[in-house]
Amino acid sequence: MPHFVIDCSKNIIKIKTPAEIIQKVYDTAESTDLFDKRDIKVRINSFEHYTTGNTTDDFIHIFANIMEGRSTSQKKNLSERIITELKLMFSEVPIISINIRDFEKATYCNKSMI
């Protein structure tokens, strides 16, 4: 926990490598002091086939799944910091966005919990 899943157009990983993008999101999430650095997970999916407003404009969207318990202001700070960093990396990309979803502690399970 947390999981940051980056969806983007295929062209994005031609501008910067997946490793650079993943590291930027990881470093930014770690810098908020909301998570243990060993728990941060970041993945990237690039898409060849998509539409954004009936165009093929480049895009980046991050689905951030975090354990419940952070305040709205903490989550807002996290999302704004990640978007700020990506905007610096990809100033020409028209769509850069994130949404943060809370995992419910009562229903979350992984293999170490069994």
From TrEMBL:
Keywords: Isomerase. GO terms for molecular function: 5-carboxymethyl-2-hydroxymuconate delta-isomerase activity. Gene3D superfamilies: Macrophage Migration Inhibitory Factor. The keyword Isomerase applies. Signal peptide: none annotated. The keyword DNA-binding does not apply. Pfam families: CHMI (PF02962). PANTHER family: 4-HYDROXYPHENYLACETATE CATABOLISM PROTEIN. This is 5-carboxymethyl-2-hydroxymuconate isomerase. It comes from Tenacibaculum gallaicum.
